Amino acid sequence: MVETILDVRDLRTSFYTDEGEVKAVDGVSFSVPKGKTIGIVGESGSGKSITSLSILRLLASNGKVVGGEVRFKGDNLLAYSEKKMRSLRGNKISMIFQEPMTSLNPVFTVGQQISETLIEHQGMSKKAAMAKSVDLLKLVGIPSPDKRVKQYPYELSGGMRQRVMIAIALACNPEILIADEPTTALDVTIQAQILGLIRDLQQRMGMSVVLITHDLGVVAETCDYVAVMYAGQVVEYSDVRTLFRKPKHPYTVGLLKSLPRPDEDQEKLIPIHGTVPSPLHMPVGCRFNPRCPAATDLCREKLPDLFDDGEGNQVRCWIYNEQWPGEKEVDVFGEERTARC
Amino acid sequence: MEKKELLVVDGLKQYFPIKGGFLGRTVNHVKAVDDISFTIHEGETVSIVGESGCGKSTTGRAILRLEEPTEGKVVFNGEDLTKLPKGEMRKHRKDLQIIFQDPYASINPRQTVSDVLNEAMEIQKVVPKKERRDRIIELLETVGLNAAQADRYPHEFSGGQRQRIGIARALSVNPKLIICDEAVSALDVSIQAQVLNLLDELQDEYNLTYLFISHDLGVVRHISDRVIVMYVGKIVEIGDKHSIFDNPKHPYTKALLSAIPVPDPDRERNHIVLRGDVPSPIDPPSGCRFHTRCPFAQEKCRVDVPELVRHDGMQEGHEAACHFVEEIERGEVKPKELQVTTF
């Protein structure tokens, strides 16, 4: 059994807006095994980014974690003081974001920004930190690092900036790297470089990676385990092979069927009809029920739990519970469902 | 039967001046599109793929003369659009419409959907005033919206619905060719599939021709008949969809295709890693523009610009701009350092 390094249990995060309470994350649970990569996938508004920000407690001022636990090696991070939290961020748990230009400070050199972390967390001198910065730039594959270390972010390309972000994140040998859409803004050839780099460094340093993405291709190739999110909840959690070979939740099935594939021809894409519900007006019962072709009255009345299949995989769908009134074998999104939605 | 040529792009160049220095003189040019030629037949879907800065969007804009092309011909239905006076060009835009990536930025937020569609029809005078309301409702239903939504404002719609409004606007003037510039890139996959299917159905219904500009190779494989691969302002490979995806010949196309993450955890993953970044179109590399990153590059590649040629073992209409297609194929030119990653 692999040791669990991060365990998120029933996490709930709300934002308080003029229009009312927005439950952006509503009962999210998953665990991150040591040294493995877990993917959190979902479409816009599914709460995947808010989940990661809640773990590090980096929410905007109108947002609040209202329930649940985030256990990092047994300790509940939600009970940490702000000071203790600060010594953890960028040190034990690091994060990289989608847009490296907006997460780097334009008026400091790359070297100063990497050094900042080292001085803060490891008490290094300025000089030692700068020397380590050069090493880190080399580690992330930036050519002529001794020159680059003195440059400003605007002098670097998008791919290089993301490499700098990774260098900052890895400066203190974190145990967990949270990467929020790290390659979404990059071209595919650069994406391949960056994903290869993350995988390579992960193996060398033995860290765990939480990868937040909307790209199922990236998930299939980089993750060991996957949590699929929909409308603020995890609807399916399983190992990557099971997810792609035998997806259980109708949403996951629909997502895979609506994906245009670069590796094979498809006659017709099968979309999921309708749109993601507004977080202010969540449907009663299962949140996917208005878009689900298999929905029954039970789905429209009661929210299913995350049911365990006994093999460590979980699914939030009534079909997999003994209370399910319909047939056992349900062909959701069958081929006949190709009409215009 | 030979299909009718609808659009012929011949030797198109689009240079943007860079002003600089003390007197604000033109000091250099961004050679965004540098001498490209291709043909689109009636009723087909041709895609242009490539990474940022390859000139794919600029090509679309130059065809519509949203930016005046520097050089070259854009022949639409037998008429060279670049020779037309501005007023005449405006009339021709009825036949050539464009859908942009971000429909929110391309629809006036202070107009209702009905105003947006009405304006397009007013300018192009395609439908008499009395019949317009009916036409608007018909258009909305065609794109999967309903009549009740005609008097709403863009902000009341979701991203996918706004893209449907963009499509309805393009359709309102009965175009022949629609340029889709990253039209589905901003949409979530479940919504993207809805819009792609819609575009597919509309093509059959109205015999539309699409020029599809996208960086998403999954989408391109799904929607295209033919594919154009661009790199730093040049076409490096052109061919029907299956030639490009299953039998790519140019080293850049091969690298680009191998870099796409595939949604299949059991697939063998060998991604060719290209060194460095895409070069700047201000000062593109000499000879073959890909030589600075190409694992097969030879001396000749640094000097001579390769032409698009159909080599042995390539289908009709499949061409690649590489000096060593056959030698690479036969294993005579070997990669110097072929770096492969498995993520």
UniProtKB/TrEMBL annotation, chain A:
Q: What is its main location?
A: membrane
Which Pfam families would you find in this protein's record? ABC_tran (PF00005), oligo_HPY (PF08352)
Which Gene Ontology molecular-function terms are recorded? ATP binding; ATP hydrolysis activity
Cellular location of this protein? Cell membrane
All copies of domain ABC transporter, residue ranges: 6-256
Q: Which GO terms describe its biological process?
A: peptide transport
Stored SUPFAM superfamilies: P-loop containing nucleoside triphosphate hydrolases
Q: Which InterPro entries match?
A: AAA+_ATPase, ABC_Ni/Peptide_Import, ABC_transporter-like_ATP-bd, ABC_transporter-like_CS, Oligopep_ABC_C, P-loop_NTPase
Can you name a GO cellular component term? Answer: plasma membrane
Q: Which UniProt keywords apply?
A: ATP-binding, Cell membrane, Membrane, Nucleotide-binding, Transport
Topology in the lipid bilayer = Peripheral membrane protein
User: Family per UniProt?
Assistant: Belongs to the ABC transporter superfamily.
Looking up PANTHER family in the UniProt record yields: DIPEPTIDE TRANSPORT ATP-BINDING PROTEIN DPPD, OLIGOPEPTIDE TRANSPORT ATP-BINDING PROTEIN APPD
What is the protein name given in its UniProt record? Peptide/nickel transport system ATP-binding protein
Q: Which organism is it from?
A: Edaphobacillus lindanitolerans
From TrEMBL, chain B:
GO biological process terms, semicolon-separated:
peptide transport; transmembrane transport
Domain (ABC transporter) spans 18-257
Keyword Transport among record annotations: yes
Residue ranges spanning the membrane: these are none
Please provide the record's keywords in A-Z order. Answer: ATP-binding, Nucleotide-binding, Transport
> Per UniProt, what is one Pfam family of this protein?
ABC_tran
Checking InterPro entries in the record gives: AAA+_ATPase (IPR003593), ABC_transp_ATP-bind (IPR050319), ABC_transporter-like_ATP-bd (IPR003439), ABC_transporter-like_CS (IPR017871), Oligopep_ABC_C (IPR013563), P-loop_NTPase (IPR027417)
Q: Which GO terms describe its molecular function?
A: ATP binding; ATP hydrolysis activity
The record's listing under PANTHER family reads: D,D-DIPEPTIDE TRANSPORT ATP-BINDING PROTEIN DDPF-RELATED, TRANSPORT ATP-BINDING PROTEIN
Family membership: Belongs to the ABC transporter superfamily.
- Please report the name of this protein according to its UniProt entry: Peptide/nickel transport system ATP-binding protein/oligopeptide transport system ATP-binding protein
The scientific name of the source species is Edaphobacillus lindanitolerans
